[in-house]
Design brief:
Elements (H helix, E strand, L loop, with lengths): L4 E3 L2 E4 L4 E6 L2 H6 E8 L6 E6 L5 E3 L7 E6 L4 E6 L8 E9 L15 E2 L3 E6 L1
Parallel strand pairs: 2-11
Antiparallel strand pairs: 1-3, 3-8, 4-5, 4-9, 5-6, 7-8, 9-10, 9-11
């Protein structure tokens, strides 16, 4: 059982920046695939960014060059830095994690995330 807790959501102007945080376990921060997802109900959830246990990152095309996923192992926390936001970035953002191992190449897999936070709302203003 891995706990996930997002924070940092709020309102930001178009072109502005916001940093989301996700507190998780000591083991997960170092050994799991960590990621951020967003959703505007009733639309489907979108994978935004992921960080594997070796520090390799992947991003959705829609956020490449604007968002950065990172982690602070000492704080058991990982982040989504959102820069130059657009109206399309408004969503409920969830952090998530899944165990990975040698069979995954220690990369984030396609099988989906297992542990999820409850979400934090990001709104965009003009």
């Amino acid at each position: 059982q891995v706990q996930m807790m997002e924070s940092g959501g709020g309102s930001v102007q178009v072109g502005g920046s916001l940093r989301l945080s996700c507190a998780t376990s000591e083991y997960a921060i170092s050994n799991y695939c960590l990621g951020w997802f967003r959703q505007v109900p009733p639309k489907a959830q979108e994978a935004v960014a992921a960080l594997d246990s070796r520090g390799r990152t992947t991003y959705a095309d829609s956020v490449k060059g604007r968002f950065t996923i990172s982690k602070d192992k000492s704080a058991n926390t990982f982040f989504l830095q959102m820069n130059n936001v657009t109206p399309e970035d408004a969503a409920i953002y969830h952090c998530a994690a899944v165990a990975i191992g040698v069979h995954d190449g220690r990369r984030c897999p396609n099988r989906g995330m297992e542990y999820w936070g409850k979400g934090t709302l990001v709104t965009i203003s003009s």
